[in-house]
Write a structure and sequence with these properties.
Layout (H helix, E strand, L loop, with lengths): L4 H17 L8 H8 L3 H13 L3 E4 L3 E4 L1 H24 L7 H8 L5 H10 L25 E2 L8 E7 L4 H9 L7 E7 L6 E5 L2 E5 L1 H4 L2 E5 L4
Length: 225
């Protein structure tokens, strides 16, 4: 049975809180939640108070929120469902890499745990989503990524794209059109001054990426960080 809209909203707040910390458990500012979800800080604060009353998070005034164990459990279950649906749509139904994120967002809220775990077995227990982000295991554990934002690389450095985070339909379509996907090797050619674009070589083509886009691309740097 499909969840009610309020429940979907609740789940998205919990999921976003986990994603913003990569599972580290650090405090998440309410302003960061609001920005990521595209809502006002006032709306985000109201939802935080609701979730606190439900025992799903703890709020430290002027610092941020942290999920309770129950909040983490619900959030990681949702992320696991989302990633597995992305894998299924991409690998088994041949949807395009850039299409599966939005489709999985619609499916994740309506999936029971039993279905999620059947999907995991069917797909061979994948450890990442198609965009390279680590998939929580059945117990909610997330392996911390070992990579570096493209914005931190210097000219001459190279590496393999490891993941795209956070995803959005607009971003994924932009990157797919340029074949900037996980496992592709890139070399930083130049970085324009004054926060200008980053020139990268990928698949024999040079692409100039603005810092906002580059911040979503994570790299496994050749030879380590």
């Amino acid at each position: 049975m499909k969840h009610e809209p309020f429940n979907e909203s609740t789940e998205m707040y919990l999921k976003t809180a986990v994603e913003l910390t990569n599972g580290s458990g650090d405090l998440v500012p309410i302003s960061a939640l609001a920005e990521r979800l595209g809502v006002s800080v006032v709306s985000a604060t109201e939802m935080v108070h609701r979730l606190q009353k439900q025992g799903l998070l703890a709020h430290t005034p002027y610092k941020g929120i942290a999920l309770t164990p129950d909040g983490v459990r619900q959030a990681t279950a949702l992320i696991r469902s989302h990633h597995l649906w992305e894998r299924f749509l991409w690998e088994k139904l041949d949807f395009a890499w850039e299409e599966v994120h939005d489709l999985a967002c619609r499916l994740e809220h309506a999936t029971d745990t039993a279905v999620t775990e059947r999907l995991a077995v069917f797909l061979g227990q994948p450890t990442t989503c198609p965009h390279g982000n680590p998939t929580p295991d059945a117990d909610g554990r997330i392996t911390p990524p070992d990579d570096t934002p493209l914005t931190e690389l210097k000219p001459g450095q190279s590496g393999q794209i490891s993941r795209i985070f956070p995803e959005s339909n607009l971003l994924l379509n932009y990157l797919a059109a340029r074949n900037l996907k996980p496992k592709q090797v890139i070399i930083v050619q130049e970085i324009a001054p004054f926060n200008g674009p980053i020139g990268v070589l990928c698949c024999a083509e040079i692409h100039h990426l603005g810092p906002e886009i580059a911040a979503h691309i994570f790299i496994k740097v050749a030879g380590g960080k």
